[in-house]
Structure formats: structure tokens, C-alpha cells
Amino acid sequence: MYDNTSQAFARAYWHWFFLIQPPPLPEALIESDPVRYLRSVMGKRHAGLAAFAPQAWAEYERCAQIPGTAMSICEDYRASASIDLDHDRADVAAGRQLTPPLHVLWGEHGAVGQCFDVLALWRERAVDVSGHSLPCGHYIAEEAPALLLAQALNFFIP
Q1: pLDDT value, residue 61
Q2: CA–CA gap between residue 35 and residue 156 (Å, rounded)
């Protein structure tokens, strides 16, 4: 996705590009108000915060305030834009593909399906790819749990 980013995707996933900036700026900004950061990223998507059960959202808030969480989040995203991307490009250059069956799901109201041909991207990386969008946004497990469960069961227990 980094290699095929459009302006629409960059606007929707601005946090990818924010989080990969060198420390300590992203960490300091997140740590100044971790709950506001969560609300800004997670609450601005298709279903807003209504998709999250109150207990689940409380846990997100609790965890975001643990010292070191912002650094961990940033380092994960920095890896995706550096070593992970290097490894992916090397695999593509060597013609390596995933061989197990892969069933890909994404939210039809999310930016990923609106900005990318999801199945085509995965078919560049895997031999046996199936999947489709579900009638939800980014947070499939929260917005469409029954559909997600049915898809998983059909895939893992045909």
C-alpha cells in the first residue's frame, strides 16, 4: 500500500505517515493526550466510536495511557515502512508468494477497498486468494461480528 498510495488513502490513513516519523515527536504528541489521539483516529471512521462496546473502548483508553504504549505503536508502524517493506519487496523481486489459502475481508465503507483493488494486491503476494468486502467500515470485528464469524468458520471449517 505504501508503494501505491494516493492522496485519498494518505488523507484517510494519515496516521500511518504520522507514526513513522522519527522519535520523539509522534510519541510526545500522542502521550500529551492519548485518549484524544484514539478518538481522532478510531472515532473518525465509518461507524465512529459507536461500533465499540463501552467495556472495549474503556480498555483501549486504559492501554493507550500505559507508559511506552505510544512508542510501541510508532515502532510497529516504523517497521512496516522500513524493514517489513524491505522484506516484502525482496520477496516480490524473488518471486516468492504465500502458498496457503488466503481469505481476505475488508469493510466496503473503509478506505482500503475504496483506494485499492484488494484482491489484486493480495494475488501479487499469494497463490490462492479469495475474499470480498463486508457491509461495514474498518473495524470489521466490531461492526459486523456475525458476518466475520461466518466467514471465518466457512474458511477454516468448510
Answers
A1: 98
A2: 36
